[in-house]
Every structure is written in structure tokens, then in C-alpha cells.
Amino acid sequence: MVKNLFKILLLFFCMILIIFVLKKYYYKDYDFKNLNMNIKELKYSIEYKGLKSAVDFTLDEQGNYYIAYKDKVQIIKDSGKSYYLFKSNDLNINSIEYFNNKLYFSSDTKIYCYDINNNKIFDIVRDIPNYGDYKNSIIRIKGNYIYITVGAATNSGVIGEDNKWVKENPYAHDISPKDITLKGLNFGEFKTGAYQSYKTKSLEGQIIPQHFPGNSSVLIYNLNTGNIETMAWGIRNITGMDFTSDGKLIAAVGGMENRGLRPIKGDTDYIYEIKKKNWYGWPDYSGGDPVTSPKFKGKSSSTIQFVLENHPTTNPPAPIYQHKTVSSIKSLAVDNNEVLGIKNAMYFYDIINKELCRFNGTGSIKDNIKFNKGDVCSLKFNKKGLLILDQKEGYLYSIEKGNVTNNFKAERKIYIYLLIVAVMSIIILLKFQKD
To answer: Per the UniProt record, which residue ranges are transmembrane (predicted)?
Structure first.
């Protein structure tokens, strides 16, 4: 009797150990929590696994996926076959798009085209000033045009010790895509001016001539003619963009932070409609408000001053949405085909709260899905639903309309293993009882 009891206890201990090992090494806690009970039924599934360190993705008309990594692009065919199209240590890919049997992608200071039919790569845009704080261009294609983001080199126009890249690029600074005039304000111990290299003073009335391409701007490239121009400027850093059903360009824009020689307290992230030829205010306005307003505070809660003498307008466009925090919005996609129920609803990922949020264009934000872990880096819609790339865990999720079920293969695996363990345990226990 004592011997059988010992065997049962030993078996129970082994079962606990097996469950612990399975949960730790096989089961990933990918439960999604629906935070808005008013949202229509959705279903969740995993399209592909094993995509760790992927930075972006796109897909073609046949349903083939193209997964971009830092130095290579992988194709996953609709049949399931997968291989790398190309690799190069010289690449630093950030964003990728498919159009007419070609792949277009951004890498450092260039935009490249990869011809799928003849397996050739060539650059179509060069000399993008991507060397500062926001040096990863995002590209999106609409019609025969590529829209290219160029981020600011600094937080608020002035280089300081917060700009670690200055050690490798001591003469770099923000480049203006249009002519601007400076007030001559200088900051810090070394009296560094706006739009100047580190430790270089600015002068009152100093004119900064336009340069193409410039920082804090959106470029537009004509795929038919090869012509390229500045579409809009004064945009600090775009973290995601997409188009509505009527062709409006929607962009998530990061607000200024409380750091550097010209710190800005009180700013947040925003969503804008980006219109051609508009100036959006950076570095003297954010969210449509001047940095001199009570909304913002500088060092030691001081009032912030303008660095530009004359502004293209004293009433730059206001955002269509203001987020609650700064440096939090990462990636954005617009449901322009109404696949999840609300036409032109904007979905974005909050990296601080690990939430996928939905903004319908008016009213308050809707929190759709809470992530327990991972690092979402890209959102895009296909004909069926919203695709979500998690580069940390290596999963490409799909969210579609349907019954509220969680179809994650990672979860089904643990249930199968636990069922096997339970069945084996029952068989062994029955054997012990017979003995």
C-alpha cells in the first residue's frame, strides 16, 4: 500500500514537472484580450511563425508573402514553399512594398527596387538624409507613386548630447527642405544653434537655404517618370502611414520629447492627414499648437521660444487625433475596404501599453486587443483582415471577422500535450490499482 502510494506521488510529481516544462518551452502566452465588448465578433489566427527579427512584410495578388529582414527578403508562397530572394550585408531594410511584380524597399539613404522577374536590384532614390534620430524611412505605394518619409535628425531642431550619432557624424544636422530664417537662439554650454552642426552657433536672421531631399518631410516619387519632389514638410517623424478609401494619406507622427538642449515637456503623439505642400509646424509647433503655448514647458518648466524667425504659417494643420502619451504609436493601417466592419477606421499599435487601438475618425479611441508580450512592428490590411507582424516573437497574426475564437497553433499544441499526459497518467494509475 505504502509502495503504491509512493508511486502515485512520484507520478503526480512527474506530471507537474512535464506540465511546467511544456508551458515554459512550448506554450507561448499569446492570449488576446478584447478590451471593447461592443466590437463585433473577431477571430484571431497565426498566418506564419519563425519570423523573428523581421522588420516588415508585404504581399502580392497571388497571396505570396514577402518578409523583409535587415539584410534579406524571404518569399513565402501560397503553396507553403519558402526561400530567400536575396541577401546582402550592405542592406539595412526598414520598410517594403509590392507593386507590379516589383518589390520596393528603404535601406539607409536609398530606396531600392527589386525586379522579381529578372532577379535584379537597383536604387531609384539616393542621398536621403537618414543619419539622425529618425533615420528609417517608411514607404507606401498609391497608384503610380511611392510616398517616402524622412525623419528629423534631432528631437526639436538642436543637436545635443542626446544625439549619440554625432560622434560618427560630427558635422551632420537637420536639413530643411525649404528656405527658413533663424532667430539666432543658441543652446547649451557650446552655444549650438538650430539647424547647425554640434557646437556651431546660429545668427539672428541667418537664412538656411532649402535642400532636397530635406529632413522632417514626405517625398513623393513618380514610378512612371522617375520624378521626385517634397510633398509636405515640418513633420518630425512618421511612425506609420496608410491611405483611406478616397486616397487621403494618413500618418502617425511622434511628438517632441523631454530631452536634449531644447527639451519639450507636455507633447504627445498624433495622427494627421498629410496634404500636399503643407508645413506641419516642426520644430516650433506640434499638434497644431505653438511651443510657446502653456501646453508645453522647457527646461526647469521654462517657457519655450521659437527657433524660426518667420513661419510659413501661424496656423499649421491640426491633427485628426491626439494620443495620450508621447513616443508610443508604432505602425498604422487604415481599413479602407471595411474588412473589419468600419470603413477607414485607423488601427495603430501602442508600444507602451502593448495595445492595438482603433480610431474611427471621430470620438474616443477604441482599445481592441491587449498583447501580453512581443513587439509589433508592422500593420497592414489584406482582403480578409488585419495582418500584424511581431518581430520579437516571430509571428504574423491575422485578425478577421467571425466567431470570437483563438486559433493559435501555439495554444493547440499545449492542449494536445496535456491531453496525452492526462491519458498516460490515467492508464498508469489504473495499472497501479490492479497491482
So the answer is: 414-432
